[in-house]
Design goal:
Strand content: 25-35%
Number of domains: 1
Order of helices and strands: HEEEEEEEE
Number of strands: 8
Distance between the termini: 53 Å
Bound molecules: zinc ion
Structural class: mainly beta
Length: about 160
Amino acid sequence: MTLNIDEEQDVSVTKGMIRAEFNFWVGIVMDKFYDGLQEKKFIGTKCSKCGKVFLPPRNRCGDCFAKAEDFIDLPETGILKNFTVTTYKISERKTRNVKKDQIVGLVQIDGADSAMVVPVININPEDLKIGMKLKVVWAKNIKGDPNDIAGFEPIGGV
Ligand SMILES: [Zn+2]
């Protein structure tokens, strides 16, 4: 799409910040996911056509576009598909830049065909290995939001 702007039109630009607090509904599928977190469990969805399992859940299969609205309980364990080390947290905007290294991992829960972006904890970056087994560490205060996942740690130590 091309936007034509009349060059003779007066345009004023004001730079600034607007604080806007709002709530929005994440939809049936993610609502169920967060309900599961409140019970310390992972709830994904399964494609009705090809059987692929998604966690985080999605309501349409990205491969065959069929509905993926069958909810499925998934375990607390998975494998590390990839990772990066950053000073930015993936949640909590107010404390986003923590000025110390954080490991952000791409973790595929056992039985799922997709992966989640989550903190990886209780391990030094140099000890990480793609394909290593991890398990969830739940937050102390469960609230039904992404912060319920404190992170994933290696199974059986390093
Ligand atoms: Zn499918």
